[in-house]
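Methods: holo model generation. Sequences were used as deposited, without trimming of termini or removal of tags, and paired with ligand SMILES retrieved from the corresponding compound records. Each pair was processed once, and we did not select among multiple samples. The sequence and zinc ion SMILES for this entry were:
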Amino acid sequence: MNETDIPIEWLDGSGETVEIGYLNPNGQQCAGHCGVPGTDHGPYAYKTECTICGYVYGTNGSDMFERHCPECQGGAPGIRYWKINKK
Ligand SMILES: [Zn+2]
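and the model returned the structure below.
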């Protein structure tokens, strides 16, 4: 079985600002993580959706509560939140 056949499971983080569905004051919504480590102190990179323009990007767990959209709010560029298959 190829690894790409396994559907990605999105998981809640620990803490209310990294739960799936959390909406921060800037309109950025947490969509969970799939086990990819973040680039900051936060243990995971979270998939984040901008509810204003629809942009989807990655956010460190520690930044979720104050994240700004990279596309329409001048926030920092998104980080990788998806898994890369190692061959
Ligand atoms: Zn946006």
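The chain has a mean pLDDT of 92.
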